[in-house]
Amino acid sequence: MLEALKEQPADKILALMGAYRADPRDDKIDLGVGVYKDPTGNTPVMRAVKEAERRIWSSQETKAYTGLAGEPAFADAMIGLVLGDAVPRDRVAAVATPGGTGAIRQALELIRLAAPSATVWLSNPTWPNHPSIIKYLGMPSAEYRYFDEATGGVDFDGMLADLRGVAAGDVVLLHGCCHNPTGANLTADQWQQTIAAVRAAGAVPLIDIAYQGFGDGLGADATGTRAVAGAMEECLIAASCSKNFGIYRERTGLLMAVARDAAQAKVAQGTLAFLNRQNYSFPPDHGARVVTEILTDADLRADWESELEEVRNTMLGLRQALADELRRLTNSDRFDFIARHRGMFSRLGLTPEQVEVLRKDHGVYMVGDSRINIAGLNQDTVPVLAKAIAEVASA
Ligand code: LMR
Fold first, then answer.
1. 349 and 256, same structural domain?
2. Which of 20, 162, 196, 241 could disulfide-link to 245, CB 3.0 to 4.6 Å?
3. Mean pLDDT of 260-289
4. What residue ranges carry the coiled-coil annotation (predicted)?
5. What is the CATH number for 173?
6. C-beta 152 within 6 A of ligand 1
């Protein structure tokens, strides 16, 4: 049997992690995978997470199974964090999933079950694992324009024009905030226009929100998602706790299905639990418990929010510093968009060849589409990177 297997294409982001580790240069710079790093290059366990773990460790008496959907308290806490009071709670079905990727996967499984011929529309570009999972599941997909390479902003006219081609019953995948890989995001007004377009098409939005709190703040980053949930009869929302709680390896996420009424939410809830059972049975619990502890305890929550703000402001400072340095070195506003982008990523608009030169000659590792992880920088490496980019861009 195994001889029938073929080599699978390497995941570009994960392959880059391996290449970086294998590079012996001391001054190499890792701007690859989307993991937050502090200025010393460390990915810290957040203070509130440590404290929540300590509390769980000292009070937990059993590791017996929870429910197939995970602990209801986790769903309640996360629905509050992501949706606020945008939708009545009884219209929302939700299951804990292994990370945000697990939530995306379960959302797609739900779509395949309910609407097998629905086309899933993806922004061009999008996180490469979106099309990869969709292809693996054998689902039809299409792209809508999203990024304007010339300005580093959203090609909103192109996006709206393409959304006019969406058929009733299709699914439109939107990034809730901090677009991955570009860093270019919709304004509040553009969210409203997007909602109108998706509604007019009779399509269902699927929102991937993996970086809430990394852009303009916890509430501001949820504006689009809440507007969609409040306006649409139905939508799916895949939320990740990996980045904003810094619990990457705990695999903690939540899939929400907003239904038109409580009766349909109940059926969706049963279906989501069924899908969990088919794929991995009970979802991981530890990270979900940590998140619940933090979100439901006023002191822990305040501490988590303040540390998250520090993280966000550090990244904003690095964005501004890099944009300023590039403006100085290139004597142009070509890279000013870096300061306007939000979240962990910015797409620089360099060619794959230029990205390769940066890796080979300068030890700078970024994804082949010229996506950089801003958090891979610090005040010392910003000028080094800016110099390398300016050199490569002018060659
Ligand atoms: C990324 O885009 O780098 C992250 O979401 C990590 C991943 O799994 O790809």
1. no
2. 241
3. 98
4. none
5. 3.40.640.10
6. no
Task: Please state the φ and ψ torsions of residue 161, each to the nearest 5 degrees.
Answer: -60, -45
pLDDT at residue 11 above 90? no
Residue 392 alpha carbon to ligand 1 centre in Å: 26
| Catalytic-labelled residue, pool 30, 208, 221, 285 | 208
Is residue 178 lining ligand 1, measured as CB closer than 6 Å? Answer: no
Residue 1 has what DSSP assignment?
-
Q: What predicted TM-score, i.e. pTM, was given to this entire model?
A: 0.96
Task: Answer with the residue of higher pLDDT: 11 or 58.
Answer: 58
Distance in angstroms (rounded) separating the CA atoms of residues 355 and 371: 9
Active site residue 50: no
The per-residue pLDDT for 395 is: 84
Residue 303 designated active-site: no
Does 257 fall in a domain? yes
Q: In terms of domains, do 244 and 126 share one? A: yes
Query: What is the percentage of the chain residues whose pLDDT exceeds 70?
Result: 100
- Is 243 one of the annotated active-site residues of the chain? yes
Residue 284 in any domain: the answer is yes
Residue 201 and residue 171 in contact, taking contact as beta carbons nearer than 8 Å: no
- Is residue 121 part of the annotated active site? The answer reads no
Domain containing residue 372: CATH number: 3.90.1150.10
Are 187 and 149 part of one and the same domain? yes
pLDDT at 30 over 90: yes
Looking at the domain assignment, is residue 307 inside a domain?
no
Tell whether the model's pLDDT for residue 156 goes beyond 90.
Answer: yes
Please indicate, yes or no, whether residues 166 and 264 belong to a single structural domain of this protein.
yes
Range of the domain at 180: 65-296
Domain total of the chain: 2
Could you tell me which of 250, 235, 242 has the C-alpha nearest to residue 214? 242
Mean pLDDT of the chain: 97
pLDDT (mean) for 217-221:
98
From 296, 327, 355, the end of a domain falls on 296
- Same domain as 326, residue 241: no
pLDDT at 293 exceeding the cut of 90: yes
- pLDDT tens-digit map of 42-67: 999 999 999 999 999 999 999 999 99
- Residue 212 resides in a domain: yes
State whether the beta carbon of 344 lies less than 6 angstroms from ligand 1.
no
Residues 39 and 135 in one domain: no
DSSP string, 139-166: --EEEEE-EETTTTEE-HHHHHHHHTTP
